[in-house]
Amino acid sequence: MKMLLVSVILVLVTQHASGGKDIDGIEGEESIVLPCPPLTGESVLWSREDLDPSTVHLRQKTKTGPEKDEFKDQNPYYRTRTELQTDALKTGNVSLTLKNLRLSDRGNYICEVLKDGKSYETHVRLHIISKEKQDIQTQVELQQQQRIRDILIGVCVSVVLIIICFVGLFLFLYRRGHINFSKEVYQVEVDSGEESVLLPCKTTVHLPEDDEISKQ
After folding, report:
1. Is the dihedral of CA 168, 171, 172, 173 positive or negative?
2. 95-144 residue pLDDT tens
3. 53: preceding bond cis by omega (within 30 degrees)
4. Rounded to whole angstroms, how far apart are CA atoms 68 and 83?
5. What residue spans define the domains of the chain?
6. pLDDT tens track for 30-58
7. CATH class held by domain 2-129
8. Category of 88 on φ-ψ map: left (φ > 0), alpha (ψ -120 to 50) or beta
């Protein structure tokens, strides 16, 4: 009779406190928290409309004051898998902890808090990713990370090789005399009709035998 009275009150004075919120979970995950806005009250009911019975978890204040979970109408599917803080209605922390996630846990959950004859609803949409799909997704992410590492290593090796080639070419040209940072320009003055003139020349030690000095 008490439960029937509470149900009638909820139907007559229901007020929506907030819109839906999406939560993601993974199959086999130890636990997940379904959030509900902080609100103190006389009772909190978590439910799923697509289930029969629809009750996921019910917590009420007793006549003497302390809070108590009511499992009589709880859906057997959630037996021993739901939990609220011991003083949830007193503190207003009525978020629900759901344990040992299963694929069939996915769905729309409703949090209803009864306070001063009014009901405040919050909807939570729970999405569950299968363990197999999660493993595949993890494997794909690892492969992508490995490809990125391989690309970065390849780029670094290429840059190092280019630097080595550039330095080697520079040293080769420098030793051959094609690059000379200390190049000097000599100016020689001679009178017309002189029998001969000495043209100064300064070169590297390893001058090739077939090199010739040209006169200008």
Report:
1. positive
2. 999 999 999 999 999 999 999 999 999 999 999 988 776 566 666 676 67
3. yes
4. 12
5. 2-129, 131-186
6. 999 999 999 999 999 999 999 999 999 99
7. mainly beta
8. alpha
Which pTM value belongs to this model?
0.56
User: What is the rounded distance in angstroms from the CA atom of residue 116 to the CA atom of residue 154?
Assistant: 68
What does DSSP say about strands 14-16 and 118-129: parallel, antiparallel, or unpaired?
parallel
Show the tokens assigned to 116.
């001063």
Residues in the chain: 216
Rounded to 5°, the CA angle 121-77-93 comes to 35
Note the pLDDT tens digit of each residue in 136-149. 666 667 667 778 88
Whether the per-residue pLDDT at 72 is higher than 50: the answer is yes
Phi/psi of residue 100, each to 5°? 50, 70
pLDDT of 10 higher than 50: no
Q: Over pLDDT 70: what percentage of the chain?
A: 75
List, as one string, the DSSP characters of the chain.
-HHHHHHHHHHHHEEE----EEEEEETT-SEEEE-------SEEEEE-TTSSS-EEEEEEE-TTS-EEE--TT--GGGTTTEE--TTHHHH---PEEEES--GGG-EEEEEEEEETTEEEEEEEEEEEE-HHHHHHHHHHHHHHHHHHHHHHHHHHHHHHHHHHHHHHHHHHHHHTTS--TT---------TT-S--PPP----TT--TT--PPP-
